Amino acid sequence: MPAKDIYHDAVKTALIKDGWTITQDPLSLRIGKKDLFIDLGAEKLLAAEKGLDKIAVEVKSFVGPSEIRDLENALGQFVLYENALSLIEPDRTLYLAIREAVYLDLFEAEIGKMLLERNIIKLVSFNPEQEVITRWIP
Amino acid sequence: MPAKDIYHDAVKTALIKDGWTITQDPLSLRIGKKDLFIDLGAEKLLAAEKGLDKIAVEVKSFVGPSEIRDLENALGQFVLYENALSLIEPDRTLYLAIREAVYLDLFEAEIGKMLLERNIIKLVSFNPEQEVITRWIP
Questions:
Q1: Overall pTM > 0.90
Q2: Model ipTM value
Q3: Distance between CA B9 and CA B39 in Å, rounded?
Q4: List of chain A residues whose C-beta atoms are within 8 Å of the C-beta of residue B64
Q5: Where are the domains positioned within chain A?
Q6: How far is A45 from chain B, CA to nearest CA, in Å?
């Protein structure tokens, strides 16, 4: 299993505060002979008739020397995991968890807006000091 | 600009042998304030009525300790560059260039087949010793 991201526990705490139950840490997926590990699986009970909302969350710190390289790496994991999830557990939605500061820097800039407008990526942002979710972009 | 991949020149030679003219090395794209660099741009004249075929090629060596991590990184670059290209130069097609051995190992396995069947990625494979193209998967 890969090493945990430095913000793994902050995101876990933030999700719990947001009403989610952590069900997998990590969530493992097997495609053929290859194993993939997504950081967290979580569930939340919706209004009675709507059932259970299930998500998978991959946490990325974006603390490398190049934010474009960090973005590429996060995007590659997201696309690979999303495709794998859609085969194995199509009712679970994948989110990339990033700090609110990264959201403002990259995803309010043209390059990130392009990815959001084209529905390439889904985001949840968090405040790492307060350990709270700041926004969901499904 | 990022460092060249170790197989950059082998792919360039293989493309030239395959009838392509290298037009950019690298091909740069600007999205807002961020610069992206794709390894190569190339063109080939088609049969008279069909005009010019234009491609961009990103070369990935896949020599890291984890082939899944290498795949994620390549995939992230591919998806980011393909989206950027489609905004700026929509008639140019992006390919990921990988060694034939990597094609056989990853893209004939379930995880790679999944990405090809879903049209997430386009590949060109090459033989690094002979410096020739071995297949195109558009």
A1: yes
A2: 0.93
A3: 10
A4: none
A5: 9-137
A6: 31
